[in-house]
Amino acid sequence: MNRWLPRTYLTLVYLLLYVPIVVLVVFSFNESRTGYEWGGLSLRWYEALFNNRAMVQAMWNSLWLALSAATVSTLIGALTALALHRYRFRGKKVLNGMLFIVMMSPEIVLAISLLALFLLVGLQLGYVSLLLAHVTFCLPFVVITVMARLSGFDERLPEAARDLGASDFTMTRTVLIPVIMPALLAGWLLGFTLSLDDVVVSTFVSGPSYEILPLRIYSMVRVGLKPEVNALGTLLLVFSLVMLILSQWILLRSKR
Amino acid sequence: MKQTLLSLSNLTKQFDGKKVLDSLDLEIFDGEFITLLGPSGCGKTTLLRMMAGFEHPDEGSITLGGQDLTHTPPEHRPLNTVFQNYALFPHMSVFDNVAYGLKMEKRPKEEIQQRVEEALAMVQLEDFARRKPHQLSGGQQQRVAIARAVVKRPKMLLLDEPLSALDFKLRRTMQVELKRLQRELGITFVFVTHDQEEALSMSDRVVVLKGGHIQQLGTPREVYERPANLFTARFVGETNFFPGRVDAANGDDTITVDVFGLKRTFRKPDFPVKEGQGLHVLLRPEDIRVLAPEDEDGVAGKIVERNYKGSTLDSVIHLEDGTEVLASEFFDEDDPTFDYRLGEPVKVSWVDGWEWLLPTEPEALPEEEGTDA
What is residue A145's three-state secondary structure? Predict the structure, then answer.
């Protein structure tokens, strides 16, 4: 009796987590137009998806945005983390705290303030405004990921490199960056995912010139759920699984 | 004959208003094994880091073979360091760790290959070149760190408590190993430790440090047998301090001192003495003789502790006035009275001429334990 309780509970939790995903994947191969009856196996919604040029364009836009936002925020974030870790300067604590404020504040506040700022400086809403906004909310996550790795970093390693004849720059290139690489990668992936599925901030700062996937799906769903969305969801799922496996593989290889 | 390699003059360093080094002067000779010994926070690590170039003195200068190094960055100093926790690069193989310094010098590939192999052979790790540091034991990592530092053929090797993370037995092996390496390479070793036994057994000279000052500089024997002050006497080895009073300064080079009512004649010490003056009579536990109670010589007391140590028998004796005396005696199988029981009355004496005299010092305030700087 007592043994069954935890098992049942665990099963329920996992069902709750995975049933919606399984339903999504299964129904993406459904011939039928409605989401509640099975009409046989088919790839027609994948075909429809790839024939929907606006959708494919939105997908490429989203991927490109996520890629660039993750890369820019990893570059800035890594340098910020290094500065916060290595140097003592005035206002260091304030700077550190401000990162947490960006992370903790409700996304809607960030969205409104960014929009207000962009309108004030007269920035045309589109790719650039989206990129700036996405870099802003990704940055704290990257900084914190990299700082966590740096706090466990042996302070003697840079000294050992200098002692053996490396300049500060060479030391950074050959010792510091390779050692914190897993954190850089993790930060990048985190930024990529955050950017890819962001709706709130994107709704405010995107313009008609650059449509991205989450907003496109959102507007599609509003006029009625199309099975195409299931196909798209399945593709995104496979894509993120591949990313996950890739990152784990790189991490494992770097440890060996 | 002895050539100065590195000379430190008037080195002063403060951290947050606290003086870690206080106008310190030191000459290190070419080819010697010199040890910086002292408790935590005595400045020994700061001194070593200054030689390596990781810290800069507030005042004073460092010269190596006549060349001023005071403001030279670490990568341009012809010295290499073995770090306390080895600081091996975790993402590189053993080979690449050792090759790092040579790659920085942009040596040709064949030369790097050959010199790294030689260095690894020297520390008996030829078969481990492809491993990563985390696949090695502590002792092996230590040896890689040494190979990495000596492969550049530095003028001087700086070792920052390199054996402190190893267990007792491995430590002993590495001590012998390091001495052998130093002899073979013929380069100067500057070794930092807080372990006085390690310092005594390995060094040509020992620098005893406290509070940023050199307390004593000498051979291990000088430091142990003729400590310059009470701190060195207490820090290096175990010592009995007997209160003495000068009874008479004799015409010849001797003085008569009253110790526990015994009148003993000692050689005149280096410091000035006058009649009636108090001083410390220092005796190492192995200088003490435990005698039968009916013996004429010696001070009466009783045994309160006996520790069998294998080759020696260590005792603690309480004298009648409450002074505690440590004695360490070698076994003498011919002496039937050798083994005393706890609580048994005995007399304590010592071999004349083995004592060491120090003037009384104004009692210093208790030192606060600082962090190792």
Answer: helix
Structure tokens at B295: 């013996």
pLDDT tens string A152-177:
888 899 999 999 999 999 999 999 99
Q: Is B261 at the interface with chain A, CB within 8 A? A: no
CATH number of the domain to which B110 belongs: 3.40.50.300
Q: The pTM is what? A: 0.79
B-contacting residues in A 235-254 (Cβ below 8 Å): 254
How many other C-beta atoms lie within 10 A of the C-beta of residue B53?
22
* Cβ–Cβ below 8 Å for B89 and A154: no
Q: Is the separation of the CB atoms in B273 and B312 below 8 Å?
A: no
B117-176 confidence digits (pLDDT tens): 999 998 889 999 999 999 999 889 999 999 999 999 999 999 999 888 888 888 888 899
Within 8 A by CB and 6+ apart from B328, the residues are B284, B285, B286, B288, B309, B312, B313, B314, B315
Is residue A73 within a helix (H) or strand (E), and if so which, with residue range?
A: helix A53-86
Q: Which of B201, B210, B265, B200 is nearest to B232 (CA)?
A: B210
Please name the member of B75, B85, B88 whose beta carbon is closest to the beta carbon of A165.
B75
Residue A157 Cα, gap to closest chain B Cα (Å)? 5
Evaluate whether residue B158 is within a structural domain. Answer: yes
B68 min Cα distance to partner chain A (Å): 18
B106 touches chain A (CB under 8 A): no
Is the domain spanning A51-223 CATH 1.10.3720.10? The answer is: yes
